[in-house]
Amino acid sequence: MSERFASVDAVRVGLRAVDYLADDSIAGVTFLADRLEKPVMIEGPAGTGKTQLAKSVAEMLGARLIRLQCYEGLDEAKALYEWNYKKQLLRIQAEDEGASWDDVQNDIFSDEFLLERPLLEAIRAEDPVVLLIDEVDRVEMETEALLLEILSDYQVSIPELGTLTANQIPLVFLTSNNTRELSEALKRRCLFLHLDYPTMEREKEIVLTKVPDINDHLADQVARIVRSIRTMELKKHPSVSETLDWARTLLILGKNSISEEDANQTLNILLKYQSDIEKVSKDFSTNSAAHFAT
Amino acid sequence: MTDTDQNLPLFELIEGFVVELRSAGLPVSLVENIDAIEAAKEIPLADRDAFKYALAATLVKNQSHWKTFETLFEVYFSIRGAEYLLDPDADNPFGELDLDMDEMEGQGEQPPGQGGQGGSSMTPEEMAEMLFQAMLHSDQTLMRAIAKQAVKRFAGMEPGRPVGGTYYLYRTLRNLDLDGVIDRLMEQAAQQLGKERLEGLDERLARDEFNDRVEAMKKEIEAEIRRRLVADRGAEAMAKTLRKPLPEDVDFMHASREEMAKIKQAIYPLTRKLAVRLARKRKHKRKGALDFRRTVRASLSYGGVPAEPRFRNPHPAKPEIMVIADISGSVAAFARFTLHLVYAISGQFSKVRSFVFIDGLDEVTHFFDKTDDINQAVHRVNTEADVVWVDGHSDYGHAFEVFWDKFGSQITPKTTVLILGDARNNYHASQSWIVKEVEKKARKVFWLNPEPKAYWNTGDSIVGEYAQFTNGLFEVRTLRQLEKFVDNLA
To answer: How confident is the model over B174-198, as pLDDT tens digits?
Structure first.
């Protein structure tokens, strides 16, 4: 059993040291992932720090981050391994007349001709690594199957070489934006972590951590306004990274506190759709009148 | 790890909880069950929140199930773990309460100086002040204490009384006047800024903040009521009464607002799946251009002779979809869902055309195309679409005639036609020959019926007559059934 972390609190403190504010569930699941030797499936809206969590954990552990970015059409040759056929061809051509076929065959299907792709690289690594399989919901249902062997047994079977088992069990994080339902087989193998937008208090803390020069009052206002915006029905809600961008902008503009006018003028940083911007600024300006009328 | 004696109760505890989850409809596999036990060994029950998240990470693999899980967790573990025991009156949680209740009946005020513990001797005014202070400082501990007191005083809980928690919640909240508290908080906030009344952004932010605190207070009260109910009836019985259908099992026709919101969220992954299913059919049929890299790779098996040419997979053709939906009164609740489905589908497929009808029929594709706002689109469909021909009662026959005349020629062998409706035709002519003709021209025709199967072909429902010409008739009342339909497409 691996024991990278002493306790749940150790995870929280460690992540804090690399500027990632983990709540109970994040710290708890990360801790469990290590103890149970299970991959973590992180799901949630865009921009809530899913990918960042994997990066921060790697940073905290001083481990190398190996990242597999998923996309439609991803296949074995790009995710697992591939034979370096050009090199194999050269090897065959360079062969003396005398050598037996068996020798050649054994030779060209050896380590030297194997191109490691992220998944294989992760389990063969000697140094500590964290494997990040990003946006796993982008691959087709059928391609998911590629991941199953490595996720449950930490091994890769290569017909010509046999089964390669992990030197060490890496921490594995998968992220999903939930654009489609993932297969049961994949879900069953993972611990599940839903990352939602942070609470107001946590978001304020995030702002304070990531935007060092900001004052407490402004951070508080930023977090509050963002929370209010997230309660509205919008095409896309502001993500944490957009909150940070906004806070930085306000800082650069030299604001110490946000007036209604400031908010309306800088909404385009927080919101990416014109219809959303209009809706929010309308809501902010007519709000008091509406309440007065009722 | 090998200390079975110590692990046995834990094992049984988790096992029992998993049984509850399963009976609530959550799919928990054996592996996940074992994982949960392993997780519980690592994170002890003592840290309750951490324990909850640990169990959730292993047992709940779908965010829409979270709410169900959380409720069950609170019920099942509510009286397990020392700090969560019902304080002094744990043996008989209602003993003292009855006393309080007698005093409360018929009286606006409670005479002070009764009950044993501090809180009980407060006047309602004192209590209201305490509540106000707790909310002002967002003081979690004080809020919890008040929730306990409030439930004890106002809820009127009696042992064995077969009333749901909502009733008690209502009674407690009625007496607490949380709206009044918000108003007071708003005044207070205004005074701090030296204004008479908050305005604009300030007002908005303050109100959001206080609403948030009120929600937190309500949660405390709910939790307290739940604890008492569990103490009275036992966790298993409570879990049973609290059992609500999972989002995927909620009947579209009777969905509450909140349930509808969840259903809407779940539709999008489903339509994507539908898109994949419809596109996949042709993927294997014809091969594309030569794939040089893979051909050379394959040639290695033959010593460099490209004996086995490899081809690229062709891009799957984009399916075309025509959705024809009944939006008449008899399926009004379903229609709301239908329109959301249509909207979701049109986001997934490039070529979707949507039609709605009652006794007339109109194309509404452009309503969905132009706007990003589903509510606006639905509103426009409901107000602008020309779907009434004579009297606004469903007439499938006439609606199909209009469809056939105007759009029949645009159906191609690539088109999949989805018809959504209950086929309650008000005894008009069925014109089912049109469905037959459509089926001949189109790739597939499917009929989705929101009525329970038992009602099909009774009264004025003639779904059977239409269905004989379609490639499939499906009962679709819940997300699960919709998903099954999508799965069957392949």
So the answer is: 777 777 888 888 887 777 777 666 6
Per residue in B88-131, pLDDT tens? 444 444 434 433 433 443 343 434 433 334 445 667 777 788 88
Domain end point (choices A167, A194, A221):
A194
When CB atoms are compared, the residue of A28, A190, A288 closest to B54 is: A28
Query: Which residues numbered 40-69 in A keep a CB inside 8 Å of some CB on B?
Result: 40-41, 43-44
pLDDT cut 70: percent of chain B above it: 77
d(CA A190, CA A29): 11
Which residues span the domain enclosing A262? 200-285
Considering the domain architecture, whether residues A155 and A226 belong to the same structural domain is answered as no
C-alpha torsion angle, residues B321, B326, B332, B338 (rounded to 10): -10
pLDDT band at A91 (very low <50, low <70, confident <90, very high): confident
pLDDT of residue A1 exceeding 70: no
The pLDDT tens digits for B309-323 are: 888 776 656 678 888
Domain shared by A58 and A174, yes or no:
yes
Residues A229 and A124 reside in one and the same domain: no
Instruction: Provide the domain count of chain A.
Output: 3
| Residue A220 maps to a domain | yes
Lowest-confidence region among A240-254, B227-241, B420-434, B466-480: B227-241
Q: Closest Cα to residue B402, out of B365, B360, B441?
A: B360
Which of A1, A85, A285 to mutate to test binding with chain B, by most B CBs within 10 Å of its CB? Answer: A85
Contact between chains at B209 and A194 (C-beta distance less than 8 A): no
Residues A125 and A235 in one domain: no
Closest to B214 measured CA to CA, from B100, B139, B135, B315: B135
Q: A153, A171, A194: which is the final residue of a domain?
A: A194
Tell me whether residue A1 is in a domain. Answer: no
Q: How many CB pairs under 8 A join A and B?
A: 124
- The residue among B318, B273, B274, B287 whose CA lies nearest residue B414 is B318
Is residue B32 within 8 Å of B58, Cβ to Cβ?
yes
Only one residue has tokens 């050896």, namely A110
Residue A182 lies in a domain: yes
Which is it for strands B320-326 and B415-420: parallel, antiparallel or unpaired? parallel
Establish if A2 belongs to a structural domain: no
What distance in Å separates residue B61's CA from the closest CA in chain A? 6
Chain A CB contacts of B57 under 8 Å are: 25, 28-29, 32, 40, 191-193
Nearest by CB to residue A8, choosing from B50, B204, B304, is: B50
Domain check: are A28 and A126 in the same one?
Answer: yes
